[in-house]
Amino acid sequence: MKIATYNVNGINARLPVLLRWLQTTAPDVVCLQELKAPQEKFPEGAIAEVGYKALWQGQKSWNGVAILTRQAEIKEVGRVLPGDPEDTQSRYLEAMVNGILIGCLYLPNGNPAPGPKLAYKLRWMERLQTHAATLLAKNIPVVLTGDFNVIPTESDVYRPERWLDDALFLPEVRTAFKTLVEQGWTDALRKLYPEAKMYTYWDYFRKAYDRDAGLRIDHFLLSSHLNNRLMAAGVDRTVRGWEKTSDHAPVWIELTDQ
């Protein structure tokens, strides 16, 4: 079972890239972030034409998340991160697919920092910690994946000294992510590639992709049930070099059958 995550940075603007990638790599499950489209503008028909069912939570102009499956049924579990009934941003979607609970998330960026956006990010991370603990308590296979907007360590960023004041790399943000992982989650890419340089995002400016000046901010966190089923993981970094592409590249894992 191949599961992928991809921040598409505007699903309708990047639709040709998304469809090309889906047809080329054929992942079984795909979590998308930053749809930048209201609910009614999600391109369900075009995605169905290349063989995928979809569950989505849109939002006008910003945010938005979706889960696609190639064959398996999707059973929706929830479409908000618990803990703040006044939070209207579309950043979380949860579903059961093939016996695995999948949480697709788009964690807030937090910039400019300090400020209200960083405060919102840290509150969101606290809510995620609380909810993640309840998911672990269910004692079932769980995947939390998406754009976490967190650079976990210095090895996950090109020239870390340039990111010291950025909300993706602030000590309190990295500590919150570490606290989350230490609940009992496995960082899938680092489990298989503990020392490798594996970026998932390259800015559009200053030819960052050409210079490989990237960040690793798109992550897969796995519950203990999936540790022994993890057989492969990677980044489809060549997609970042396609014309009119997202500033993120797709990230994926492969799990053995039970």
From TrEMBL:
Keyword Protein transport: no
UniProt: Mg(2+) binding residues: 7, 34, 147, 149, 247-248
Annotated cofactor note: Probably binds two magnesium or manganese ions per subunit.
Residues annotated as the enzyme's active site: 106, 147, 248
Keyword Repeat listed: no
Stretches assigned to the Endonuclease/exonuclease/phosphatase domain: 4-248
Record site feature (Important for catalytic activity), residues: 218
EC number: 3.1.11.2
NCBIfam families: exoDNase_III (TIGR00195), xth (TIGR00633)
Protein name: Exodeoxyribonuclease III
Record organism: Adhaeribacter pallidiroseus
